[in-house]
Design brief:
Strand content of chain A: 15-25%
Oligomer: homodimer
Number of helices of chain A: 15
Structural class of chain A: alpha/beta
CATH topology of the largest domain in chain A: TIM Barrel
CATH superfamily of the largest domain in chain A: Queuine tRNA-ribosyltransferase-like
Radius of gyration of chain A: 20 Å
Largest interface: A-B, 41 and 41 residues
CATH class of the largest domain in chain A: Alpha Beta
Low-confidence stretches of chain A: none
Amino acid sequence: MSIEPAKFKIIARDAGSQARTSLLDTPHGQVHTPVFCPVGTTGTVKGILPDRLVELGCSLILANTYHLLLRPGIDVIEKIGGLHKLMAWNGPILTDSGGYQVFSLSPLTKITDASLEFASHVDGQKIRLDPAIATRIQNRLGSDIAMCLDHCPQYPCDSGQLSEAVERTILWAAECKNAHDNPSQMLFGIVQGGTDPALRKRCAEKIIEIDFDGYAIGGLGLGEGHTNMIGTLAATTPLLPVGKPRYLMGVGTPADIIAAVRLGIDIFDCVLPTRNGRNAYAFTKEGPLRLRNTAYTTDTAPIEAGCDCCCCKNFSRAAIRHYFNVGEMLGPILLSIHNIRFYQRLMTEIRSLIAENRFASWADKQMPIYYSLYNSSEGLSKKD
Amino acid sequence: MSIEPAKFKIIARDAGSQARTSLLDTPHGQVHTPVFCPVGTTGTVKGILPDRLVELGCSLILANTYHLLLRPGIDVIEKIGGLHKLMAWNGPILTDSGGYQVFSLSPLTKITDASLEFASHVDGQKIRLDPAIATRIQNRLGSDIAMCLDHCPQYPCDSGQLSEAVERTILWAAECKNAHDNPSQMLFGIVQGGTDPALRKRCAEKIIEIDFDGYAIGGLGLGEGHTNMIGTLAATTPLLPVGKPRYLMGVGTPADIIAAVRLGIDIFDCVLPTRNGRNAYAFTKEGPLRLRNTAYTTDTAPIEAGCDCCCCKNFSRAAIRHYFNVGEMLGPILLSIHNIRFYQRLMTEIRSLIAENRFASWADKQMPIYYSLYNSSEGLSKKD
């Protein structure tokens, strides 16, 4: 295995937009962008074995440092040979810093410029994270891409809080960069600033000054809505270096992704396909299906006509409805499989369209369709 | 697809025992016996997709008529094209009659020579089964092997109850035979009689007189213990026609299976590998592992050295212990996969040994080893 850091090479650019395809070369393999990462919260994409993830077209998986820190713990993961060994996933892994989950799962958080202190949501144990610790943890996990510890405030928050979060994110980014000590791992900086273009600009400039292997846009997809998200992206993405990968964290619906690719985003992660799949919600090009509905009791059609996943090729809606109805694991498993494949098919289509210079006109037509199908949809939850 | 009924052909006999290998030809494919069927209670082997079952070496799957009758219901299954379609399993399926689950899951059962009446354990709905109904249900499910409705009393029970159950089983078998109306489906008769050799003899003779495509031995593995089970089998199996398949229902541990193969049994089903897998219990040649144990926290070994399943080839004990510890589906899934493969490897080994005329001497050595590893083991539950 190479200890060379990942390399990023732009392959094609779309003439009608900022969209691009690229090859991201990591110690665990190549990633074609734009890419969607399923979320492997505690060291597994829930219910899906790694060989199936490969079959579904997944190339990059996200794992949550917060969850892994609590259980099984970093010492354990290091002892057994790292995160790839734990997950039995030999492809590229991206880890977050843990900060986001601290904010969203641990109400007892105490935050200062020095550190985050929180109580484990599992057993109440007091834990302290700071930029150096969060970075060193990811160094030890051995992920291919590590993220800086940032301060992601809730949405909405007042401008004072937002500004404080931006300054702390900048401060911490420098400390993460200093602490980073794994030559085969990329480290990405994160731009915060809510929906405030001025704060985004300040944060982007300062983070870029520190110089990272890639840049993420955090603090979106938190309830600000598609229009605010895209407006913020339109103001922020042009500030980022063209030659480095760009990652929109925790986003999103198909329309969100199409709009963000258009603005030059390369990497996405989101719990939507898996979380919703476990809750009997299926993504299709015709719109969502809710498989607990009795309407599907004797429906012999696949979840989505033409889908090549092992769920659609073999199982009827009736069977999946039955599995959810009786509480069989196969219901959540099959819809997670289909939804991940739906997202991967979308990304494959997007990459082809960019390569063929046809992305912008396709996006003009498809974005509003997907928007009306999914961005107004109930039942979309981002918690995994 | 052929509408020929299944055909049974003995391929090899072991010189030192009654063990034999055979080829059972069904409308959905061939089954090499001795065979172990995993249990697909409600139309799925819990958590495992059909392609994985094939990869694990499964050729015949059992589904429970009782559960399917309650949900999704026989009308639904028929409307969507039968049980194979529901399960997305194109191989052979064996269905039970539903009787056993009525006795074990429905305390409100009223039983007469005419019928079984019970309240659904799901919603309390009153349901009536009789031999003709149970047979017609299986005809409509379209399984490859259907079972007669029998009366399986609890163990222990008094001799009057046991005798009554035998007489009712004989009476019902004739009615099942009369009602059976699916030319592409085998129908097996069932011999009851507890551990009483005289009752077993009477039941076997009467059931054979009716003439079935195969014969099952029911009412064992209910707590009578290995010695009583094998004693009963030794008295009963020689009464069954040599040229028809023999099925020992709901059994058992590796030692039970080896001993029963020795006495000429061809087909087995049991929830042990899946049920125990879901409860963090792994079968290995060295004895059981209980994966919740902290001893495995940093154990990088596979569940069983040398096992070729996708669990053992990829995942460490540490990872599986972690998945059980955090409640990830992958824990139950991976151990179900390994345990099914463990059973299938055992059956493959048994078939090879019989073919090579080396089974009896191997069984002499292995049976006591497996007996001490598993028949005294706690944590083995037969409920699925």
